[in-house]
Every structure is written in C-alpha cells, then in structure tokens.
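Section: protein folds

Sequence with per-residue tokens
===
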Amino acid sequence: MIGCCELFGIENQYKAEVGFWLGAAYQGKGYMLEALCAVVGHAFGSMEMGRLYAQTSPRNAALLHMLRKAGFIQEGVLRRHTRRGGDWDDSVVMSILASDAES
C-alpha cells in the first residue's frame, strides 16, 4: 500500500474529517490529490455529505497547497492544538462544502 485517504468522525452522515498519509517514495507525484478528489466526490455524491474538513500543521506547506488545489478553504487556526514530535503545535483547519464543490 502506498498510502491512504479516508473519512472518519462521520457525524449524522452530514460531515466528516478527511485523513491521509502517503509513503515518502510516492509524494509529489499527484497521487494523494487524485485520491482526495475521488474521496471528496464520493462523499458529496453517493454519501450526500455537506461538509468535509482537514487539519494540519501550518508548517506543512505541501499539504496545505494540495488541500487548496482540491477546493478546501482555510477556516482558521487552532492554537497549540496538537502534540507533534513532543511539542505543542497549531493546527490549520481547512474545509470544503458540497456547495463549494458544485461551483
């Protein structure tokens, strides 16, 4: 397996968080953007969800860029939200609504 893109924390079939990881050898080739767009399409299509969101470190420029390319919009920053490598780090919250994907 080269990576994973999944929906979790599904609430009332309306919203969910998107999570993903990709092996280092496969990064930068567009695989995760392709997978993310497929998951978004499935969530808003077959699953009839209304909102998806993702959280990441503000220092993860590549992931933030990919989320923007997929249509996600930054909602805000959760300060000192997550422990990464033993240190507290902020989390950028990005989201996409079904209505965003339609336009």
Remarks:
- Residues 80 and 90 are 5 Å apart (CA to CA).
- The two ends are 33 Å apart (CA to CA).
- The chain has one domain: 3-102.
